[in-house]
């Protein structure tokens, strides 16, 4: 276009004639740079919170976590498994849930059982490293009162019960 423009009536005198070549310009590096500017980085590892008081029932746990930075996150991947000393047990299977919020209530768990939780954040660029692992414990199931063993007198009562839990219970509260 410039050569055609210069052939028109122009009052410019050039000492040399323009010599143009057809060049192919490689924009791949520029394109990569532009793409890297427009993409968001993969998120950093979330921080899982320790178990909060009253966050457990006999069959459920509420797990919460947060982020250190203002990362862009589309969803979270929450993983958990029961804590056990036995290796290669069927109950050692890891479970994974996709969650939009920074909390999740997990149901259908075993009473008085420890579970290990960890979480990762995801966005379009990738997945974060996993958080530190946190151990949560479900509440014990209610004990069963042995009604045939109840004894009482004027100033005292004997009440016996048994726990249906596999793991030992720390203490009981008896209400009258």
Automatic annotation (TrEMBL):
<dbReference type="Pfam" id="PF00041">
    <property type="entry name" value="fn3"/>
</dbReference>
<dbReference type="InterPro" id="IPR003961">
    <property type="entry name" value="FN3_dom"/>
</dbReference>
<dbReference type="InterPro" id="IPR013783">
    <property type="entry name" value="Ig-like_fold"/>
</dbReference>
<feature type="domain" description="Fibronectin type-III">
    <location>
        <begin position="46"/>
        <end position="141"/>
    </location>
</feature>
<dbReference type="InterPro" id="IPR036116">
    <property type="entry name" value="FN3_sf"/>
</dbReference>
<dbReference type="InterPro" id="IPR050617">
    <property type="entry name" value="E3_ligase_FN3/SPRY"/>
</dbReference>
<protein>
    <submittedName>
        <fullName>FSD2 protein</fullName>
    </submittedName>
</protein>
């Amino acid at each position: 276009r410039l050569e055609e423009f210069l052939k028109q009536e122009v009052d410019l005198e050039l000492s040399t004639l323009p010599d143009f070549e057809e060049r192919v310009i490689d924009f791949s590096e520029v394109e990569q740079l532009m793409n890297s500017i427009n993409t968001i980085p993969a998120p950093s590892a979330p921080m899982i919170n320790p178990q909060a008081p009253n966050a457990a029932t006999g069959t459920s746990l509420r797990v919460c976590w947060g982020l250190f930075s203002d990362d862009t996150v589309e969803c979270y991947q929450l993983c958990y498994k029961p804590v056990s000393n036995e290796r290669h047990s069927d109950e050692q299977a890891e479970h994974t849930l996709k969650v939009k919020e920074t909390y999740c209530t997990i149901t259908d768990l075993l009473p008085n059982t420890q579970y290990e939780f960890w979480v990762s954040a995801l966005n379009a660029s990738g997945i974060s490293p996993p958080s530190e692992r946190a151990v949560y414990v479900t509440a014990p199931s209610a004990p069963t009162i042995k009604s045939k063993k109840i004894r009482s007198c004027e100033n005292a009562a004997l009440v016996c019960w048994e726990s249906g839990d596999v793991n030992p219970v720390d203490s009981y509260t008896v209400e009258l």
